[in-house]
Amino acid sequence: MQTTLNASTSAAVSSPAASRTQVRILAAAEELLRSGGAQALNMRALADAAGVSIATPYNVFGSKEAVLLAVMNNDLQAHQSAFARASRGDLTDLFAACRITIEHLTADPDYFRALLSALHHTGNQDLRLLFAGPRYLLWKGLLNRARTAGELREDLNADALAITVCQQLSAPVMEWVQGGLSATELAARARYGLAMVLLGAATEPARRIVEQELQAAQDTLQNIWQALLRKRLQQGPLSDDEAALAADLLPAIESSETTPMSAES
User: What is the pLDDT of residues 2-17, one digit of tens each?
Assistant: First the structure.
């Protein structure tokens, strides 16, 4: 049965002792996620890790979903603080926020992979909304400030633009959660995706900023993919499918490998 949650679902703290117990349980939840992954977090394991009775996590939070929400709210506060420190009120804030978000995730990869995996696999739509909603509002606020600064088009709907930005960023993050991307490629993919969205949203005077970000991200991605392809080529010839996928990268690699020989001759 789905548990109903709201923004205040992390049981009320009525005394200093209760507050200490809550902090202890949340610290235990974070460590379980970090050390054992999403599957390690259950109420019995949480009670054991926190050194409390099995009933205590239920009494303090009510459910595993509410524990996850409280953990995510702690993370949101840290995220908001980082955004606030970087805020300048213009388009560059969006790229700074993208960088801060990825650095925040990749600084503690085991923990955030487990947390986002637990969120992704939960059947509780309320929990997903309470995770996504405040983060969406952070991005919408940044977009609105950039628009007030005259760097984003006035005719674009703020909600549609914020949703598109969030969706564009969430795709590479989830691929990283599943182990498909390195931290470096995640950062470049997120930056490139954000730049592509903003390229169509920026006013003419601001397009130069977006184009520079786009080019830098593209260069980084090309370097990453060429390095991966070189590593693959060391293992032997490519299959037909691999060769088709790498068709645009192979000429650059072949050129870089033959140029030094030509110079020596």
Answer: 444 543 444 444 556 6
